[in-house]
Fold:
Amino acid sequence: MNSFIDFISFKDPNVIYVVLGMVFINSSSVLIGTFAYLRKRSLIGDAVAHSLLPGLCLGYILAGEKDITYLFLGAFVTGWLSTYLVDYIVNKTKVKQDAAIGIVLSGFFFFFVVLLTYIQKNAAGNQGGLDHFLFGQAAAINKQEVMLFAIVCIAILLSIMIFYRWLISVSFNMDFAASMGLPVKAIEFLITSLTVLAIATGIQALGVILTAALVITPAAAARFWTHNLRWMLVLAVSISVISGIGGAYVSYIKSGMPTGPWVVLFLSLITLMSFSFSTRKGILASYLKARKNKAKILHENILKAIYQHHEQLEAEGELDYSLMSSEILKIRLFDTTELLKGLRNLKRKGFIREDNKMFSLTAEGKKESRRIVRLHRLWEQYLLKRTTIDTDHVHAGAEVIEHILSPEIERELEIELGIEGIPKEDY
Amino acid sequence: MNDFWIILTASLVAINSALLGSFLVLRKMSMIGDAISHAVLPGIVVAYYFSEDKASIFLLLGATLTGVLTSLIIDFLSKKAKIQGDASIGITYTLLFAVGMIMISGWMQGNVDIDLDCVLYGDIALVNMDKVIVDGNLYVGPRAFYIEFLGFAIIGFCLWIGFKGFKLLSFNEDYARSLGIATGRWHYFLMGLVSLTTVVSFEVVGAVLVVGFLIIPAATAQLMTDKLKPMLLYACGFGILAVIIGYFTAVYFDVSITGSMVSVSTLIFLAITVLKRRKRQTKALLKSSTDLRG
Amino acid sequence: MKSSIEVHNLTTAYGGAPVLWDIDFQLPTGQIIGIIGPNGSGKTTLLKTIMGLLDPASGFVKVFDQPLDKVREKVAYVPQRESVDWDFPASVYDVVMMGRYRKYNLFKRTKDPDREIVLQSIEKVGLSEFKDRQISRLSGGQQQRVFVARALAQGADLYLMDEPFVGVDAATENSILNLLSEMKNEGKTVVIIHHDLQTVSDYFDYLLLLNTRLIARGTPAEVLTKENLTNAYGGQLTLLSKVVNLIKQNEFPIREKDSDV
Structure:
């Protein structure tokens, strides 16, 4: 617990740098990654990450030392070249996009390996920690670097805010954007440049392989929760920053633990949780919905059975009889425990009364049972009128639909079929 | 003699990868190959952890299952969780690679002896360190060569007897299923073989080198021919060519051997792309001029 | 009458929404049968469900009164032309040879009678001179004929073809039509997804009119009535699509389990 307090109280200045660094780095990558996700080009980020490496080396060789301007320029050139090459290969040959990305990614990466060994053996002095870009060095972020990451992050944020509309139209539909007369080429150039910037910061923390997770995973996780792009951006950034701090914390309390892999682990965990618990399309939400639907179907089927019981006795006008649960079972084959559970619930909701094991409909219940039977039969009539269906299948075809038809659709059915009241099953 | 064994061993890596890579490229699943080659890391770490001597063959085969698991997770994310295909691949392999890295860090004090740099680009120059010596003094080649050769035997045999199946799966999966063929099983069969290549090559050249050899020679071969069997042969040929040129370039400039091999492979691809385009343009030009005359 | 395909109470859903809904029909044998309906009406889904490529949410399919797996040998499937990558390194001969592949001979060598059948099939669609040509160097119509030849090579009794007339030249259309009548004379059954209402009555003996539900079935004269066509094409089924959306939004089960008494 002490270490946790130490961590959040920022006693150690390094912790501040690491946490701030994570905030800026992760935000930059996520902002870019969300657009890449929407453009279905997630793996381009991976290719860019690998291709930055030889650029860094070239910058180093040209400058003769670890000069940040040269490194950055080098990385920018090769990073940009990689996206251009992928597009060139896809457009000009029969090689498809997946292979093109794979070629560019491994080609640049191994060119880097060559350059790295060249520098190690030929350059004076050390190679300036170039190999740190392989696995990242999140724990060693210093003050200057934090400043640099902040500038990059703000630059990306500003560009996205200024060009928001353009970015959306290009991400949504490139051809349409072009037909609207938008400068598609310029926007593409902007996106590529921002991508290179974001990933160039990302690989310092997570390294060349895991950076892809910063770009891809938060966007995918956020997608489970919202349709709205702005919310998606906010959510993805939050998810990523939380994971970043989590990773920093683990490596703080356990020496020798690398930060990057833990960040990725946290990101994946959040994605798994989003998939499980999201309100929009998570498995928990689906399960709850399925339970609710099942209960609704059960209740309505019981009411329907009670109505049909009256119909057999030609008493559907009043619906006043009391009946035992066994009589309901004669109309429709329910599972007995389910039936009893359903009857209890219906009683609680005030649709039926129970008197000495005899069940009868309340006024509410009568109304509801009429509504359901009516919907069932309206739908049967509709199917008969508009489609071809074997008469012995009409009933089954309408069996589920009565539970879902909304009042709006009910009215439309009435108008289309010209039916009032409850039609009989007379086909 | 050293040169000879290095080139021979690397050529086997290139052949294994090129054969399987051709099917990956044709099925537009290159990046799944990339994902598997990264994601076997935790499997390899576990294999090393539990085997006292460096990597018993059976444990390495066990690590192969990690690759199959990878493709299962990718399929789950894209089909059940409805995450885009690209993103599913990225999420899966970064997660598994991260798990592998954490395992290495956690067990570093234990008996796991894996260098992360080695994971990425291996050290083929060290191939000869681990020699197979028969009768006390007869040197019959490095151990890595025999592991690769075993891999080659398995992959070659599987592709030979399953050629029709892989061809059908790659060209028209729906049609294959309409013939009653269990395409799912064939898919995981192929993924298992890709995983096997990565695992057996890991020690020799690093997991990531396999990516280069899986995709680049196959894509180059795709540009050269429009028949399947020649495409496989071309892919192997380009792989071996890259190994040989790459090796001597590396020795000449004193740089990384594996790095040089993949770089050469990429250059061959780019050169052929440009040459083919030039040729096609000339042809088109000739055709249009004859059309004009006609 | 023996039925070639019997579909019973078939519902197939995509992402929770029914694409095919409570479909019931029996198709005759020895006839050329057309499936028509507007775009997105579930025609391809129907063929794929019959072929076992998609799992139905409810209902079942029988082919020649048997489950599909027992009679797969007798059924040939022609997918849409756009469903494959024609850059694939294969020749016309290679693709047609795939028609001879079976579950049990996949690991065996190709036999001479198979080669004979493949060459005959290629000849039947008039592609003999192109048999060694790579498939991307064929015209759209020729590519379609390659697929038809592959189905012929299967030597089936029932053929399911997904839009074989889309994007083909007049020569191909005629050659496929000739083949169809030849096949019919041999007692084979052909089911074809078609989109051109102009030619429907000339091409087919029997029709299914589809729009998520089965709108009509029968001879062209019976099916092509004004009422049926407005029901299928005239936007009369807006209610149906509203209900489909409701089902999808509420993740409602399409069928109640164990409730049909």
User: Anything to note?
Assistant: The mean pLDDT of chain A is 86.
